[in-house]
Fold:
Amino acid sequence: MRLVLVGTSHHHAPVELRERVALDRERGAELAARLAAAGGEAVCLSTCNRTELYVAAADVDAAEQAAVAALAEIEPEVERALYRLRDHAAALHLFRVAAGLDSLIPGEGEILGQVRTAYDAGTTGMLLDRVFRQALHAGRKVRAQTAIGESPASVSSAAAALAEQVFGDLDGRSILLVGAGKISEQAARNLLNRHARIAFVANRTIDHAQDLAQRFGAEPLPLDRLEDQLASADVVVSSTSSPGFVLDAATVARALHARRGRQLLLIDLAVPRDLDPAIHDLDGCYLYDIDDLEAIVSETLAGRRGEAERAEAIVAAESEKFHEWHASLDVVPAIASLRAHAEEIREAELRKAEGTLGRLDESQRRAVESMTAQIVNKLLHLPIVRMKQAAAAADGVIYAEAVRHLFGLGEDER
Amino acid sequence: MAELLFWPALLCYGEAAVGYLGDMRRPGASGRAAIWGVRLGWLAQTALLGVQAARVDGFPWSTWAGSLNLFVWFVVTVYLGVRRPYRLLGLAVMPLAAILLVVARAGGGTGVGARSHYSNLFLVLHVGLVLVAFAGFTLAAALSAFYLWQERRLKRRAVTILRRPAPSLATLDRLASRTVLVSLPALTLGLAVGLVRLLSEGERVDAVVAATAVTWFVWAAYLVLRAARGWTGRRAAYVALAGFALVIVIRLALPAAHFA
Structure:
C-alpha cells in the first residue's frame, strides 16, 4: 500500500479557483468514498485555503490519475494548479499542514480541527489511519511545545488578547462599543468568542446603534450619553468616522472616581482617532490605537515565523517516524515468516526429545521450554532489527528476499 | 544527614531559579525543568526539616537561622500551592528562596541544634504562624511586583506583550489581596501568642517585636485601603512592596537576640 496526494492550495491557486473546488464535509466524504471504492483508502481535506485528496492504494499511478480526474471533474481549470506528492513527501506535507506550517498565517490553529474533521469523514484503513493520527499528533505537539499559535494574527484578535492581559478571563466583562460599523462588529465578535458581554453600543445615529445592539443583546446609546456608562464598562472599543475625539481625558477622569480602581481598557480602531491619547496617562487606563495594535500583530507574526523553525524540526521528526513505520511494512511479512519458521523448528525439536523430557517434572519442562524460546528469540533479534533498519533505508525488500532465500521460507508465505 | 539534604535542596532551588529565567526568554523545556527543580527541592528541604525535628525531638527552628530555614520552606510551599497558572512567579520566588536558604545555612539553621527552652506548643503557634504569615506576604509581594512589571508593559505598549503573555492585571491583584487576607490573621494570632508570653514573663518589647507590629499595620492598611478607598492595582502593589521590605528587615537586618 502506498500513499499519494493530489491537491491545490493558496500557494498554487488564486481564491477564484480554490473556491470552485472547495467541498463541504458531505461532498468531501462522498468523493473520498468514491476514490476508495476499488479497495483503497481516501480522505478529502477541503478548507478555504486548500483542497487535497489523500489516497492509499496498491497501484499508486492509477490512484493518482483517479484523484486528478476527480478534481478536474469538479473544475477542469484546477488541473494546471495541482501538486502531486507520494509516500514520505505526501506524509510530510500533511504533517506540515496539520501543524499550521503550510497555512497563510503560520501556526493558525483552525487547520488542526479541519484535518480531524476530514479524517473522520474519510474512508480510511491501516495506512491513512496511521498517517492522519500521526499528523494530528504532530499538530498537537507543535502547539504544545512551541509558541507558534499563541499570539493573535489580526488587529481585532490582538485587541481581545490585550483585554485578557488586563482582565484575565473575559467571562461577563462588560464591553462598550462606540460606532456601529463593520470594524466595531468584528472586534466585538472576537471579544464575544472569549465570553465577554457586549453591554452598550453607542453611535451618533441611534438607528444604527439599535441594529447592532439588537444582534448582540446590548443596549443602544446616543454618543452624548457615553459618559454615563464609562463607570460600568471594562473595555471600550471605538471606531467611528468622527473627525475629532469622541472621548477626551477629562471625561474619562471623571468616570474613574466611580470605578474604584477597576482597570479600563480602551481600543481605538478609528482613523482619525476617536479617543484622546492623554487617556493612557490616567491611572488604571490603557489606551491602544490602531498603530499600537498593528505593531503588536506584526511583532507576533515575526515571533510565529521564528517558532516555525522549531515546529519544522518537530514535524520532520514525526514524519521520519512515519517513514520508518511505512518502510517496515515491506519487511513485516518476511519477519513473520521467519518467526513462524523458527517456532516450528523449536516445537518439532521439543517433540523429538519427548522421550527424554517425559522424565522431567512440570517445572523442569517449563524451564526447558523457556530456555529454547529464549535461544530462538536471541538468535532472531539482531537479524530482525537489522531488517527494520534496512527497510527504513529503502533496502528492506532486498533484505527480505535474502532472508527468504537463506532460510528457505516458502513463496506462499508472502 | 541534615547536611546531605541541604545541598540537593539548594541545588534544586538554584536550578529552578535559572530555569525560570530561561523560561522567560524562551518558554518550554527550561520552564518544565524549573518546576521539577521546585518540587524536588521542596521534597529535599521537607526531608531536611524532618531530620532536624527528629534529632531534636521537638521544634528546632526557634533560632534566627533555623526560623529562616523554615520560612523558606513555607514560601516554597505557598508558591507550590498557586504555581500552576503563574509559572513566571517562580522567577521572583525561587531566587529569593535559594538565597535565603544559603543565609540560613551560614547562620547554622540547616544543621541539628539544641532544643529550645520554650514549649513546643508555644513555638509552633508563635514561630509557625508568624512565618506562615511572612511567607504569604512574600508571595503577595512577588505577585505585586509581577503586577507592576505587567502594568509597565501595558503602559509602555510593549510590542512583545502578546508574544510573552503573563497573568492578567486583575488576576495578579486579586490573588495578592487574597493571600494577604489569609496571611494577616495568621500574623495576628502569632503576634498575640508572643505578646501574651512577653507580658506574662515581664519581658521588654525588642526591635523585632516593634518592627513586626509596624508590619502588621502596613498589611492591615493594605486591606483597609482596598476596601474603603478602592486602593487596588498599582497603589496596592506599592503598599505590598513596602510591607515586604519590613518583612525582609525583620528577617535579615534586626539583631538575632529575639530568637535566642
Notes: Chain B touches chain A through 25 residues (CB under 8 Å). The first helix of chain B runs from residue 2 to 25. Residues 113 and 212 of chain B are 25 Å apart (CA to CA). The radius of gyration of chain B is 19 Å.
